[in-house]
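Bumping with the actual sequence this time:
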Amino acid sequence: MLEGCIKGIEENGSRVASPSRPTTWSARSKPGTRVIVGVNDFTEGNDDADLEILRITNEDERKQVARLNDVRGARDDAKVLLALEELTRDALDPE
């Protein structure tokens, strides 16, 4: 599936598109108007067009939010901060 995306990035650079404005998104994604890698160009290898779309119901969302709140409530904030500090230090260190 990624072959087309990789080729598109190598040949045309990377562009991030957001469907936040549907009219604009629709107009820009039409063939020949603007290259959107994996959508209207460089789609080679995208043989999984028949994938089922995952639909998230309000009940699914409610359960996930409740689970996330449980995890957040049970974690040790001091350990989280230490881990984030260590991660930041390691990310800034070129070695």
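The tokens above came from a reply further down the thread. The chain has four helices and no strands.
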